[in-house]
Write a structure and sequence with these properties.
By secondary structure, this protein is an alpha+beta fold. The protein contains nine helices and twelve strands. The chain has helices spanning about 15-25, 35-50, 60-65, 75-80, 85, 90-100, 230-235, 235-240, 245-250; strands at about 5-10, 25-30, 70-75, 105-115, 145-150, 165, 185, 190-195, 200, 210-220, 255, 265. β1 (about 5-10), α1 and β2 (about 25-30) form a beta-alpha-beta unit. The protein has one domain (about 5-280): Jelly Rolls (Sandwich), CATH 2.60.120.620. The structure holds 2-oxoglutaric acid and fe (ii) ion (FE2). Fe (ii) ion (FE2) binds near residues 129 and 201.
Length: about 280
């Protein structure tokens, strides 16, 4: 591995993060969350991690991608209420405004996933998360989503720190990362890697048996189907207690494309905004 991921200090401004992510498709921001927030989140989520059962699709490609020594949990804000603070973090939303608003009038929270890699897990295949949607060829298709990979525990070279190919968001279609293109997002707990949806990456191999916990979450263009079905993963009474901005991101607001995008309205609830659900 010779490539490197740029590491910005914890107080890096939005412009600095954008500068690095524009250039490389990825950047790490150190100390992105406070230690006490991370302790709170990890304590809240632990019972769900302990109960987690692996879902088997029976499709080798999907099951292999998700990993057989990896715990994955959705519905994060129902399992760990402190996640609500992270999903509406001001700096993150300023980044999403910059990357996603040029192509939609509002964006959505696409998925929040706890990804805990245990000993013996092998590396994932390289992919782009924009590949969730069948928009091919990729060249010229534009960015569909942005991912944030927060280290819930230390990410090390041997416990599965995310592998990434800096600059791959600018590659032509079909180019696969070679060894010299690959960097590893080695970072202490609390750091965050911001990864463009068109930047190639993969979960790393865990060869030392030390658990690697990621809080991986993404935002997508508001007219796409979200990766996670939060309408079903989050009970309505949980959603009702969330800040309004979090509810909007989860789709409890109408998508109004009738302005700049010259398109239509999506996500109606009874011919109006789902916001009405909380305004009784
Ligand atoms: O766990 C990781 O480091 C990466 C996981 C990933 O990229 C994915 O599941 O899409
Ligand atoms: Fe991914």
């Amino acid at each position: 591995m010779v490539a490197e991921v740029r590491v910005l200090p914890g107080d890096a401004g939005v412009a600095d993060i954008i500068g690095a992510v524009d250039a490389d498709g990825v950047a790490i921001v150190a100390d992105f969350v406070a230690t006490d927030w991370l302790e709170r989140f990890n304590a809240e989520i632990q019972p769900a991690v302990d109960r987690a059962k692996r879902y088997v699709f029976g499709n080798d490609a999907i099951d292999g991608f998700l990993g057989d020594r990896t715990i994955r949990l959705h519905g994060l804000v129902a399992k760990a209420p402190s996640f609500a603070e992270l999903m509406i973090d001001e700096r993150l939303l300023a980044l999403m405004d910059r990357y996603l608003l040029p192509r939609c009038s509002s964006y959505l929270f696409s998925a929040g996933e706890l990804i805990e890699i245990a000993g013996g897990e092998t590396a994932q295949s390289f992919h782009i998360d924009d590949g969730s949607w069948p928009v091919w060829p990729r060249a010229g298709a534009g960015l569909l989503q942005m991912n944030v990979m927060l280290a819930g525990t230390d990410f090390t070279a041997t416990n599965g720190a995310t592998l990434v190919a800096p600059g791959s968001h600018l590659w032509e279609d079909g180019r696969e990362p070679e060894q010299r293109d690959i960097a590893q997002a080695v970072m202490p707990a609390g750091s965050a890697a911001v990864i463009r949806g068109d930047c190639a990456h993969a979960g790393g191999a865990n060869t030392d048996g030390v658990g690697r916990r990621a809080i991986s979450f993404s935002y997508c263009l508001g007219w796409l189907r979200t990766v996670e079905n939060s309408y079903l993963n989050l009970p309505l009474e949980v959603v009702a207690r969330l800040p309004v901005r979090a509810r909007e991101l989860l789709g409890y607001e109408i998508y109004d494309g009738s302005g700049r995008e010259d398109s239509g309205v999506l996500g109606y609830y009874e011919m109006g905004s789902p916001r009405a659900l909380f305004e009784a």
